[in-house]
Amino acid sequence: QVQLVESGGGLVQAGGSLRLSCAASGRTFSSYAMGWFRQAPGQEREFVAAISWSGGRKYFADSVLGRFTISRDNAKNTVYLQMNSLKPEDTAVYYCAAKDDDYGLRFPNYDYWGQGTQVTVSS
Known about the structure:
The chain is mostly beta strands. It is built from no helices and 11 strands. The strands form 2 sheets. Strands 2, 4, 5, 6, 9, 10 and 11 form a 7-stranded mixed sheet that branches. A 4-stranded antiparallel sheet has the order 1-3-8-7, with no helix packed on it. Strand 4 and strand 5 form a beta hairpin. The N and C termini lie far apart (about 40 Å).
């Protein structure tokens, strides 16, 4: 079992930055690939970014490529999502997720999910 807790969300103006953190507890964090997804009101949950268990491979949605980065610190059992040049359309609840293999990281078939953190970008 893995427990995930997101933090770092909030209200920011367009063009600003936020860094989300996801702290994991439970089974060995370093053996899990990690992903970030988001869900805006009335919309389906969508992929944002993912990182392999080793950190050697990273994936991004086209909508955030060049603006968001993902990283992990296996010593701290934490994965980060650095969000720069934020836009109003980035407004959503952001979820962190853990997957016990490195395949299909763009799809929401992850094994564990956090409760989410709200990100609101004002224009």
